[in-house]
Amino acid sequence: MSDIKKPGMSRRGLLKAGAVGGLVAATPSIFIKDAWAQEFRNDPKNTGELKLGFNVPQSGPYADEGADELRAYMLAVKHLNGEGDGGMLNTFKPSMLSGNGVLGKKVTYATGDTQTKSDAARASAKRMIEKDGVLMVTGGSSSGVAVAVQSLCQEQGIIFMAGLTHSNDTTGKDKRRYGFRHFFNAYMSGAALAPVLNKEYGSDRRAYHLTADYTWGWTQEESIKNSTEALGWQTVNAVKTPVGAGDFSQYITPVLNSGADVLILNHYGKDMINSLSQAVQFGLRDKQVNGKNFEIVVPLFSRLMAQGAGDAIKGILGTTNWNWSLQDEGSKAFVQSFGAEYGAPPSMAAHTCYVQTLLYANACEMAGTFYPPEVIKQLEGFNFDGMGNGPTLYRAEDHQCFKDVLVVRGNENPSSQFDLLKVVDVTPRAQVEYDWTIFGGSLGPYEVKM
Amino acid sequence: MDAIFIQILNGLDKGAAYALIALGLTLVFGTLGIVNFAHGALFMLGAFCAVTFQKLVTISAKVRDEGVTAFVAYKEQPYLESWFGDTGRIIIDYSVPLSIMLAIPFMLLVGYVMERGLIKHFYKRPHAEQILVTFGLAIVIQEIIKAYFGANPIPQPAPDILAGSANVGSWVGLGDNLVYPWWRLIYLCFSGLIIFAVFAFLQFTTYGMVVRAGMRDRETVGLLGINIERRFTVVFAIAAVVAGVAGVMYTPILPPDYHLGMEFLVLSFVVVVVGGMGSLGGAVMAGFLLGIVQSFASMNEVKEIFPGIDQIILYLVAVVILLVLPRGLLGRAGVMDD
């Protein structure tokens, strides 16, 4: 018979292992900081650089907005690396950013083209994650894209700092642990706009909605309907229009005889330009209905997009996330920096993208690591100021930023070529906050299996 | 009644655009036998003639924008305004109709070069290859326009005097509340004029008579010693001009972008097929018919009964017509029957 050693552990071995285990458990975490560092995707390790992925529409209908986002990202990278005048690095507080890169690493970037199509956006984000090795993905000009890329980033364990996305779903039913939105949403637009609509147009109005037939349009229509009906307005009709319809005349002409005295255009981008221009051409703004002036409302306004509508935007009410005319120190610093670099003021999309990059970089500094779960924990519940819009909170429960919302009107007498929107009201943050559970959804886990 | 009247106007207006594009498509198909998928791109090129003309008349000096204090910004002051005052302003204001002067020679040239440089090499090739090459050409044209003009729509306002709406209700005794944009009415009249001109050219001129004869029997016309190919090249160029000027005049209705042609192309092919391949009258009739049908399908009363009908109505009507009349409304035997 051969002498076979039985597997298992001796009593003495067990005691030794227990002692070592206890020692490790009792060791203060500062001594094992970065112990998780080898466990996450695209860890920059000793490469000396941190690569970010800027996924913006470089082609397709929102290419101009994408170009402005990219300009803002490049400016943010400059400022993070200590070049230029520092922009909002000088006003952002509390901040650990010093213009020395992030955690001592130089910030670099890769770019992708979302084409404002969910599939293309996912493909370009995947390429940046897998081929370029980016540690964070950011950008975009559409809620459909944001929801799709956010979901991919959750699967990949890569943080997604959303660009321009206004649907309630992004931080509602489709929210993800790895996704963060600085931009405001449709609910907040409704909450901010309603008091101004009440003041300007009264509580006895009949509204007709034309709505882009996709996630953003649906949630905006719902939010604006809820807000205006709470004022006492009636909703005469809500008609879905295909995205990219081009000629909206067949949707606008029924409004003429509907008995409505307000037209609400839940459109963005090219659809907004076309539907608003055509509504004005059809003489809606010159009409008197129910003894009142007919009014048009565009709940989500963008200065960049408004340029395309020309004079049609004059006098039209809407909301915007940010405007370059704001006079707080952060906005002034950003506008000056951006204007000096590019000869034009930043759009609201550029602003949100710039801020998102700085927020991510600062969260890494605060966490002392690039390990995503720790960075996420720093962003969750983070209170900050000095980035425009006043004191802001990144709510932990749904990763939605809460800040003041601007109600704007198309400027009747612009003082410059860029002075297209006039701020008529700054709605305080408290007025646009809501219970995060109303939109459902679940954030998902911090840890992601690779 | 008001709603029905306004939807008829809407349908005629929409149909006018379909009819003009379909007319050019049918001309090319009827003469050269080519299925030209680049025809939508010609409509878009015409629209960008208006954009180019506007850019030419608004070539500007850069002057400091005093309204911007946060940084050094410049705005543009058109030289025409500085040099000629009100006359310059009027030229800029009327840039859309004036740009037809640029569009006609430019589109003639484009049509000629396209036919001689590319299309003629595909006359005897299968329709599938013609479609592939012309579709590829459309994409190339589209991408060139995007690279040069960007992706955003570029507004082309109608002249100030025509920017408002006409009180069409009072014209037909339906009350003052019924209005319709002036420019859309002008577009409708303009389309009628172009359609009439094309038909008159083919019907009442010797040149047109030869072209019609060539459409019927190319070989016999050739045996008479007439260079029918050269005449067909001219017809191709005329089709390009029709698409181009239609595009120019459409710009105040829909700010042009690089994708404009594609938006109309598919619908225009439906129009051509419904009208009957090769039938000019059929193309025009189908254009207006489908425009009106599409407008009525978008009425809320209709959509309450058939939700989403506005999205599919054109194709539904096309299927029904082709089931009843397999050659389309005015299609002739022997055309695309194989």
UniProtKB/TrEMBL annotation, chain A:
Q: Which Pfam families match?
A: Peripla_BP_6 (PF13458)
Q: Quick check: keyword Amino-acid biosynthesis in the entry?
A: no
Q: Name one GO biological process term.
A: amino acid transport
Quote the CDD domains the UniProt record gives: PBP1_SBP-like (cd19987)
Keywords from the UniProt entry? Amino-acid transport, Signal, Transport
Identify the Gene3D superfamilies for this entry: 3.40.50.2300
Leucine-binding protein domain boundaries: 50-411
Q: Indicate the segments annotated as coiled coil, or none if absent.
A: none
Q: State the InterPro entries in the record.
A: BCAA_transport, Leu-bd, Peripla_BP_I, TAT_signal
Report the domain of life of the source organism: Bacteria
So where does this one cross the membrane?
Answer: none
Report the sequence similarity comment from the record: Belongs to the leucine-binding protein family.
Quote the protein name from its UniProt record: ABC transporter substrate-binding protein
Which species? Sneathiella litorea
Automatic annotation (TrEMBL), chain B:
Alphabetized UniProt keyword annotations: Amino-acid transport, Cell membrane, Membrane, Transmembrane, Transmembrane helix, Transport
Q: At the top level of its lineage, which domain of life is listed?
A: Bacteria
Q: Which segments cross the bilayer? A: 15-35, 42-61, 90-110, 131-149, 185-211, 232-253, 265-291, 312-330
What main location does UniProt list?
Answer: membrane
* GO CC term (a single one): plasma membrane
| CDD domains given in the database record | TM_PBP1_LivH_like (cd06582)
Subcellular location, record wording: Cell membrane
* Pfam families from the UniProt entry: BPD_transp_2 (PF02653)
Mention one GO molecular function: transmembrane transporter activity
Q: Which InterPro entries match?
A: ABC_transp_permease, BCAA_transport_permease
Q: Which family does it belong to?
A: Belongs to the binding-protein-dependent transport system permease family. LivHM subfamily.
User: What's the protein called, per UniProt?
Assistant: Branched-chain amino acid ABC transporter permease
**What is the native source organism of this protein?**
Sneathiella litorea
